[in-house]
Protein 1
Amino acid sequence: MEGTTPATARIRDGVPLLEMRGITKRFAGVVADDGVDFDVRAGEIHTLFGENGAGKSTLMRVLYGFHHPDAGEIRLQGSPVSIASPADAIRHGIGMIHQHFMLVNTLSVADNVALGLRSSRGPLTDPGRVSERIRQLSETYHLQVDPQALIWQLSVGERQRVEIVKALYRNATLLILDEPTAVLTPQEVDDLFAVLRRMAEDGKGLVFISHKVREVLGLSDRITVLRAGHKVGTLPAASATRDQLVQMMVGHALPARDLAAETGATEGAPDRTPSDRAPSDRATAIESGPGVTVGAGTPVTPIPATPAAGAGTGAAAAAGAPRLVVRDLTVRGDRGADAVRGLSLEVRGGEIVGIAGVSGNGQRELAEAIAGLRRPSSGSIVLEGTELAGGSPARGRAVGLGYVPEERMRDGVVPDFSVAENLLLVDSHEPAFSRLGFLRSGEIRRHCEELVRTFDIRTPTLEAPARTLSGGNIQKLIMARELSREPRVLLVAQPTRGIDVAAAQYIHDRLREQRGRGIGVLIISEDLDEVMALADRILVMYEGAIIGEAAPRASTRASIGLMMAGVRPEAPADAGPRATA
Amino acid sequence: MNTDLIVAVIVSAIAYGTPLVLAGLGELLAERSGVLNLGVEGMMLMGAVTGFFVSQQLGGPGWAVLIVAMIMAAVAGALMALIHAFLSITVRVNQIVSGLALTIFAGMAGLSSYAGQVWGIGGQHGLHQLTRVDLFGLGEIPVIGPILFDQDPFVYLSWGLVVLVAWYLYRTRTGLYLRAVGESPRSADAMGINVTRYRYVHTTVGGALAGLGGAYFTLAIAPIWTDGLTAGAGWIAIALVIFAFWRPDVLLLGAYLFGALSSLGFTLQAHGVQMPSEFFSSLPYLMTVVVLAGASTTLARRRIGTPASLGVPYVREEG
């Protein structure tokens, strides 16, 4: 609330800004946080580090009044407080930048900032004055925002700045940032970190939630690691190492190669060699991981190795004939504007092509167009001679397209169907599984049991509804279903988003294995580290088109990051697109 | 067509459009908060029967009786809406089911008919009726006089409410918060706005306006009570809100368009134009179908300002 200045001036040395003691929060019997202690001092950046589902966000949502804790105590500057709603949290000087922005898309920046505030004009709004103060804050903290712009017109990075301005406007002394870097380009991340450091220098306390080691080590003063709802420990960032943090996060050591790939520790691509990808090496790496049960024993799929070109070594250079050829594809997005603009790409057998880019640059529409879920307005999508553009999802499937969608709960499974039913969804008409329209339950059971076993899907029974599975197991289920159909081309959108490290590692290994079988794999991911770890060729997507291509080995993060931000790789190309447009 | 006929059509369009303006504004407020209220028809009927009953019972000067009757009609509508608010906001019953249930419960052969029977007001001739008030003696001006300055107080009230609601939505703090609640309750909640309270208040006020709209039938158009006399005006009001893109100014014009269609038959007949009356009486309903079908097409849905959370209950601890 404007006017009620939180006790910024009274920060006492020694007493932490925030103390949380023994916070426990359960959801329908599942413990999200179990007796977690956490504290933040004025002027520090304290990171909450852990996997998805470790309880980081829940802990902070308790602090912000979204969840009521089942046990525990919260103290602000030494005095116990009860925070029953976000309104209480704001009153106590707590601001939160949520993972999913809390902005009203149809309103202006100024209106969004003014939400919930007292106005200087009593019952009337005062957009002029609000805009003025937004401009002041923008200047002080180098946060470029236009107060008059409507939220839906802004990029993701700009929206995040609006969220930060909102918190600053309310004189927040304690700011929580829930995975703020997930949606940003590397350059935007640098800008954000500069802003955060400036705020810490101003004496504010910051809580940074992340699961990316590299960022955490670079930004934090202290790091608290959570695992499965428990606090593993708190350590000063200065003395923490990458290996130590990852070990604390997952509870055991990871093989070095995967550690780099799964936790975003890749710096450029220093430790990658061609032999890195040799199947034998891969198997060794998995087995050397003590306690990593998921990959134990190189899995045997029910798929016979396709005797296609490029199979065998799995070396990227040996990629075979083009399997998926996309030419001048234009696809309209939900808002009516073109989301994909004249995009062309090619995927060969035995290679992994990775599409990198900041979310919202047409990746979703591209994936949906290839999968047959969205009708392109022009261009062609050819899978080994069959035109897919304008067809149905069934046509793609018939000629060997496997599709693992981005929204796995919405597009990948029927949440209330059982694991077995979901495994069979697209194949129920196959003679092996149905006779005269009746399903053959014995065959189906055998088939499903085999898939569950080979793909290590952790489910109590085949009858359990898919929605009860964890994200990682749902992804494995979808992978199992798609791969059991022996695809020629596999399209995977956001392969490991929101999935725990072990499952992500497993899925990455499976994707590399498909390459080894000669399948053409196209992955679309907003996680640059993932693309760099998996792909043989990286295509960077910007505003609906491929802005540049990079080989992961030769490229550095920075040059790919520049392309993600819309900077074309070769400067002289400047005249080209303008002239033709 | 001569000028007299045009003026007559417009004047009767306003008369028949006024209950739609009132009920439509009420629905607009509820929907702006994210609550779809399909109980409008039932609330209008309750307002109509309550208003008429009160006006028949009370003694005293006519204007005072009518004011009390209007207030009681609004209270009846508000109470009904409170039931809808409780069911859809607190208990989180499906809003469509709850609204339909209320319309069936209070509608024809339901509570409003029962009340009419118990109170014995069926067939009674009304003792009070709102009459035209010639504002500042300007009603004599040709053409615009009868349209703008010679209407009953209800019409003036509805115009005032349109201006008030527009000002409220776009110029006041609470109006801004209301729009935020309807668009993104989670964001509004995160900024410390009480989503539940906003939804309750606006649904209830919306019901009060629906009650007033219903009372216009029995206190102004014709002082008589018959079962189901609103004849679907509540449904037209709901269609109207969509037609108006959730904007009060467009809603006023839309209401008069529907009003004109409703009254066209009588007006033309009175002026000697011969057309089957069934054709005219079907026009507003036909128009309702056209509007709803048009609004449902994807293109229209992208362009118009449907509150994004319309019909979706808000639960803080989910998601």
Protein 2
Amino acid sequence: MTTLTDPPKESFRLSMLIYDTRYRSTTFQVIALIGFLTLIGWLFNNTAQNLADLGKEPSFRFLGEPAGYDINQRLIDYDSQSPHLRAAFVGLLNTLLVAVLGCITATILGVTIGVLRLSKNWLVAKVMTLYVEIIRNVPVLLWIVLTMAVMIENLPSPKDFRGEDPAATMQVFDSVAVTNRGIYVPEPLFTRGLGDAHLFGNSAMNFNISLDLWLVIAVLIAGFFVSAKIRKRADGIQEATGERPSTWYLRLGVIVVPLIITFVALGFHLGYPELKGFNFQGGTHMRNSLIALWLALSIYTAAFIAEIVRAGILAISHGQTEAAAALGLRPGKIMKLVVLPQALRVIIPPLISQFLNLTKNSSLAIAVGYMDITGTLMGITLNQTGRELETVMLGMLIYLTISLLISLVMNWYNERVKLVER
Amino acid sequence: MSDVSFVRTEMQPEKTPPASTVGIIGWAHHRLFSSYLNSAITVIALYLIFMLLKGLIPWIFSPTWSAASLGECREMIAAAGHEEGACWGVIRDRWIQIIFGFYPVEYYWRPIVTFLLLFVALAPVLFSEYTPPKLIWFTGIFPFLMPWLLWGGSIWTPLMIMAGFAICYFAFKAIDAAAGTIPALIGSVLALIVWWLFLASPVASAINNIIPIELGGVESRNFGGLMLSLTIGVVAIAISLPLGIVLALGRQSHLPIVRMMCVGFIEFIRGVPLITLLFVASTLLNIFLPPGTNFDIILRVIIMATLFSAAYMAEVIRGGLAALPKGQYEGADSLGLNYWQSQRLIIMPQALKISIPGIVSSFIGLFKDTTLVSIIGLLDPIGLSNAIRADTAWTGIVWELYGFIALLFWVFCFSMSRYSMYLERKLKTTN
């Protein structure tokens, strides 16, 4: 016969909060939470007190007031009568512009250097190692100010292009002018253009976007889509018959031909920069500050991307390459079908975090006077309105949002390529 | 029947390998000229390197060390018959400023001594097997010695802050014997806080009145140049590692509130650029603190740089923790170790070892990021370079000045990365 006895009921003592492991974690967490809330409350209290002393009510009303300063490099219409909010928006677009440009060139440069560092050619490998070791052990801010200084001091000024025997000439068939005020490149123009679409009505965020651009993008996407279909069909035929039909001209054609037709229909031509008066007119003017920032961020981030690419390729064990060779694949196919798909799994996550770093480093634009979100909202707007708290908080929030969006993309990718194990 | 043997009974003497596969020629054949394409690349690369050196070497060896301005330097180059050349005069003229900023000349020995002592203090940590074990005591003292040497003031202030730890220890011993461990822990921490906040400073000034041992004070705004970068870098590096470990453990913790706070902190810091945090340091920190507080700008920058670096460090160490096989945690549990024991003896030594490359590269990143203080108006080497370029004597100077600053940073960053490789090799236990 068994007897069920209750476990001895200990009465709850206060010391059990600390000595009993069942309660201890809760105790610690409650203490931590109270400490944290106290800290937050203390900071809030101080802030309210300080702001009251300064006579500054926290408010975002200043965003609607006229900014009163000019922004020379901008993607959308803006003048000094536009509100601060619009200045911030111009800044945000500038941040995104330099980030996107930088990511593209840094990736191209970085992948090239990373692959060349693994080259069998000793000289090339050493030169690339030298590049990586020099670039990444020197602060990015120094690269930015150095590039800017070199551009200002060493490039010809527009007046050097003048006269019978000019000291400087335009590059690339007389279409690009490299001057110490920036680089002038030809701009795309459309004689039979579709005009602009006006977005976001009368709000501070309104901007015009060229319908021609949309059309070209749409045609490109459609071309790639059809091209992918053709490849799928070729894959199907290869599966069924073992013969792969030659499709490269078809696949190239469906992308290029519609694009050319679109350009002709829209009356595409280039507007070349011309020297008029003291400066160049026409064309697209990329200012020094943009070029310096873009170049410096690209060469700096490229050094890191090169290391990531190298590590990614080295991470694929040699057995994989040998096994692929044993199957009779040629070196090009081995790279494309065996090494690269596995290496990309290793490369892409740190690559995306380098993109994130580049975006955050673009905030150093303020050192060369490029008006990004740091330069407008957290720079001039802060100085003019004296709203430190609001502007810096808003700026941080914007960067945080960009970072979180990029992290989301990264998580999505990681989830997608995760090895499915047993 | 004749005994004809078709079997060779002795070995033929070895032939020497073909000349094209051994020695320097073999190496060159294999690594530089293995195919037509490879040969072409080698030749092009050699040509480019030759052109670069042809321009660079005469530029570097230009006799302009004595020039006092850019104009004078250009005259000297023209007089020497060259077209182009470096103007090293700017380095001779300003190198002391780039290294010490506006630190008072008569006190230059103090940062130098601090810098040398830094290596003495680091030696037991970095090269433990070559240094006497007693030296670790100096490593413990150095964090108090360094601010005194750099900022000056009474020696009794850092001594009294150090005394706080002794008081903490004795309070712990006394209460532990009387009332048990946990009251002792709380009591000793309280004693420490009370001592530091209310007693240390009057006691220090009282002793100083009796036995004055003082160094001349130096204001923070006189700090500058490489010295400023090193001060911020070293302090932030030293604090961010332990802070990063705590944050990483917090992020892995099974206590949901602690974990949430750590994740929130880490993700927030990693999501914003350092420059925005420096803006907070320079404009907002005074708003967040009680009215009337106004503490040193360098200290504020160090706090922000430390928090920034700690968040990155936490992620690096979390990677190391995640890379440890689960068996290590279970093994520690099965030995009956409690949480802190298993972290200290089993988990952390391995996790830190795995994450050495990441930790060092985030140190390097932090040291490079100290240049950002030039944007909020501190005169680090880059801030000074702007001032020098604005000087009429040196307007227009570019490569010499930035090259010199880049070299300073490069030396430190490159040695750190080499040390991390050495450490990895030293700690490698697998065969």
